[in-house]
Structure formats: C-alpha cells, structure tokens
Design brief:
Layout lengths: L1 E4 L4 H12 L5 E4 L10 H4 L9 E4 L2 E4 L1 H12 L18 H15 L1 H15 L5 H19 L12 H11 L12 H11 L9
Parallel strand pairs: 1-2
Antiparallel strand pairs: 1-3, 3-4
Helix pairs in contact: 1-3, 1-7, 4-5, 4-7, 5-6, 6-8
Length: 204
C-alpha cells in the first residue's frame, strides 16, 4: 500500500490517522503541494486531478481523502463486535448509519474545508483566500459540531467512525487558522477523545 501525501495537509493527516488506527503497513511518498509538486507531470501521471492524497492498494488507485477513508473503513475496518471498543466498524453497516456518516463528511468538505482549512492555508501558506470570511465559515461549522457533541461523544453512534476523523483534522489545526476553540467545550473534549484512540499519531 502506498500513500502520496504532504505532511502538513489536514486531508492527508485524516487518511494517515485511519491507516495507523487500523494498523496497516504503508509506504509514504512525500508530495509537497505548497511547492507545486502536485502539478508536475510526474505526479499528474499518478493523479490527473493534481491533488493529494492518493492511495494505491494493489491495482487500485484512489484520490480524495473522503473516498479513501470510505474505502479503508469498508475494506479493512472489520465489523462491530458489540464490546464498545473501536477495533473495527469505522463505517456503520446499516444504511441510516452510513448516511449519517456521509452528512458529516459533507460538513468536513464544506464549512470546515472552506472555512478552517482555507483560513489556515491563507495564513500558513499564503494562499489567496479571504481570511475573515473563511474564519466565519469555520465558526459556523464548529457551531454545528458543538451542538451535536454537547449531547453525544461521537458524531455517529456510540463509537468513533470515519466521520470523526474527517472532521477532526482541520478542527485540531484551528489555531493555525487563528480560530480559537474556547467557546466550543464539547468540541475540545471530542478532540481529546480522538487523540486518546489507539494508533493516534499527531501531525508534526
């Protein structure tokens, strides 16, 4: 298994988190998107989209962090053995649970990406985004998370799923977007629960 990724990408980090939590062996191929390496002919031969992450698993090649999370959870995530531990079942087996995961993936790709991720990209990597507008969008996403997490430990069901990992990374990096989490106590507690999961590895 091979992962093309950038150490400081939140989208790559969420894939690494699941790979590590599943205990899977994989080779990392560094691609520095901040220096335009995703736009080279060499990388576009791997992914014509010109974006990271990209996962290769045998003959399968997948781009997009959400698709990769979904694949890894379904292919390697195991099943719920009912003991409450998260040694599998990163994606619920029932249609309703799966649909709930998908709606949180949508939040991660909208309010959190266009908000927190873009504000961070502007401040950290000089990307041409409106920081104030992005921060406002990010806070809107955090409010949605706070409302859910004030009454539940996890975004879907009674255990961590790929919904949590998908939403977590840019929230954990919110300080680099200059968005404080002081007003979101349930979100902070959720971040701590994720960081306590077996196999968790922080971004450098």
């Amino acid at each position: 298994m091979r992962l093309y990724d950038f150490e400081y990408s939140g989208n790559c980090w969420k894939v690494r988190l699941l790979l590590d939590m599943l205990g899977l062996d994989y080779e990392r191929v560094p691609v520095d998107s901040s220096r335009g390496e995703t736009q080279t002919a060499t990388f576009k031969a791997v992914s014509g989209r010109g974006q990271i992450p990209v996962l290769e698993d045998g003959d399968l090649r997948l781009w997009d962090s959400q698709a990769i999370l979904f694949y890894l959870a379904r292919r390697y995530g195991g099943s719920d053995d009912g003991d409450g531990s998260n040694d599998g079942a990163w994606l619920p087996p029932d249609p309703a649970g799966e649909a709930e995961v998908l709606q949180w993936l949508a939040l991660s790709e909208n309010e959190l990406l266009y908000g927190l991720a873009r504000a961070r990209a502007a401040l950290k990597f000089g990307r041409p985004f409106d920081v104030a507008a992005c921060q406002a969008e990010g806070r809107a996403g955090l409010a949605v998370l706070e409302a859910r997490l004030a009454e539940h430990d996890w975004l879907v069901g009674e255990r961590a799923t790929i919904a949590d990992l998908a939403c977590y990374t840019y929230v954990a990096l919110a300080h680099e977007a200059e968005v404080a989490l002081e007003d979101y106590p349930a979100v902070r507690a959720w971040c701590a629960r994720i960081a306590a999961l077996p196999g968790y590895r922080a971004m450098r």
